[in-house]
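== Sequence entry ==
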Amino acid sequence: MGTVLAVFRVMPEDMAYFEEIKEKIKEAIPEGVELHEIREEPIAFGLKALKVGVTMEDTGGILDKVEEALSKIPHVESVNLEGATLV
């Protein structure tokens, strides 16, 4: 086993909740997962997504747990795993 670096894309339902979602991400990250970065990504016409970079031990189902935790944040429309790699 090793350490996994993963990047998730979080889309807000409404830009009015953008800053609130950024703060809630920090609280939602499951135990054993280290948050490295939350970056804003412009989409179009004032819309932005959040790129969330995390690392964790490569254990079964951990990526699903992170995705599920991020999806449960209020006002989050969708969460997608953009990439994962062993480091």
